[in-house]
Specification:
Membrane-anchoring subunit of succinate dehydrogenase (SDH). One of its GO terms (biological process) is tricarboxylic acid cycle. It is found in: Membrane. Keywords: Heme, Iron, Membrane, Metal-binding, Transmembrane, Transmembrane helix. The chain has 132 residues and is mainly alpha-helical. The chain has a single domain, classed as Up-down Bundle (3 helical TM bundles of succinate and fumarate reductases), CATH 1.20.1300. Helix content is 77%, strand content 0%. Helix 1 runs antiparallel to helix 2 and helix 3 packs antiparallel against helix 4. It is elongated and about 90 Å long. The model has no long low-confidence stretch (mean pLDDT 91).
Length: 132
């Protein structure tokens, strides 16, 4: 008589809740989120440029919207997202050369990307405030 084979016991993939969140993992997720946010922020930039090309009334309206506290929060967030995404890209560029894969180097590069993006965002907005 033919032998009946039972299905092969295969290990199940661990659920995401099993993994301990690491800074590099959070940075990778944030890199994707900032990339998506840059699409939306670029639409705001296009709206500003179209308003500048259309008429002074539209340009004043868009400038007013960007001058409100909510507009300022969005613009500061867009600036930070731009610099954070750039820092993540630089980190990946370093990894493309085979550098920075050690446990300490990975953490240092990731922490440096957060410091870099925060410092550049603060510098840009401080310069914009003082040059205004």
């Amino acid at each position: 008589m033919a032998e009946v084979r039972s299905p092969v016991e295969r290990p199940l993939s661990p659920h995401l809740m099993i993994y301990r969140p690491m800074l590099t993992m959070m940075s990778s997720i944030l890199h994707r989120i900032t990339g998506a946010a840059l699409y939306l922020g670029t639409l705001l930039l296009v709206a500003w440029l179209v308003a500048a090309a259309t008429s002074p009334a539209w340009f004043d309206l868009v400038n007013w919207a960007f001058g409100t506290w909510a507009g300022q929060v969005v613009l500061i967030g867009y600036t930070w997202a731009l610099f954070q995404h750039m820092a993540g890209g630089i980190r990946h560029f370093i990894w493309d050369f085979g550098r920075g894969f050690g446990p300490v180097a990975r953490e240092v590069l990731t922490q440096a990307s957060f410091v870099f993006s925060g410092a550049l965002t603060a510098a840009v907005w401080a310069a914009a405030y003082f040059l205004r």
